[in-house]
Design brief:
The chain is α/β, with parallel strands linked by helices and 146 residues long. The chain contains seven helices and five strands. The protein has a three-stranded parallel sheet with strand order 3-4-5, sandwiched between helices. A two-stranded parallel sheet has the order 1-2. The radius of gyration is 16 Å and the shape is globular. It starts with a helix and ends in a 13-residue tail after the last helix. The mean pLDDT is 86.
């Protein structure tokens, strides 16, 4: 997280690192450049990220990143938000996950509204372009949830 925040800051972006206290104490995230907000739990982190972002970008990573992104995606089905999740698909890292999502959609286990927010790109430039062009298309069933 520290390297990503540094690169974003150098690139001129506003940086807000939202860190669960347990990770901050263990120094798992490195030095955050920009504003740092410590929260008690991962659930608090996800909520704060949702409140403070226009989109999400996942880099090739592990189970915690996937868990956070699926939590965020599940909230689309509940009409909590309609923000895209970018999967920076370096060297095809997310190909099998994207295939799984296609299959789950084809078999009607997830609605189009939840799948459409996953945006895949193999470069940062392509990702930025796709996120800027993203327009959420409401799902008629999900639209009834309030």
């Amino acid at each position: 997280m520290g390297c990503v925040s540094t690169a974003a800051h150098i690139g001129g972006s506003q940086v807000l690192g939202i860190i669960p206290t347990a990770l901050a104490k263990g120094n798992f995230v490195g030095k955050i450049v920009g504003e740092e907000l410590r929260v008690p739990t991962i659930q608090d982190r996800i909520s704060k990220m949702l409140d403070n972002s226009n989109a999400f970008i996942a880099l090739p990573s592990g189970i915690s990143t996937l868990e956070e992104n699926f939590q965020i995606a599940s909230w689309v089905q509940l009409n909590i938000h309609h923000k895209p999740i970018g999967l920076l698909n370096i060297d095809g890292y997310f190909n099998k996950l994207l295939s799984f999502l296609d299959q789950a959609r084809e078999e009607n286990f997830i609605p189009h509204s939840a799948q459409q927010i996953f945006i895949s790109a193999s470069t940062v430039e392509e990702m930025v372009d796709k996120l800027e062009d993203f327009v959420y298309k409401p799902d008629p069933v999900a639209a009834q949830i309030d």
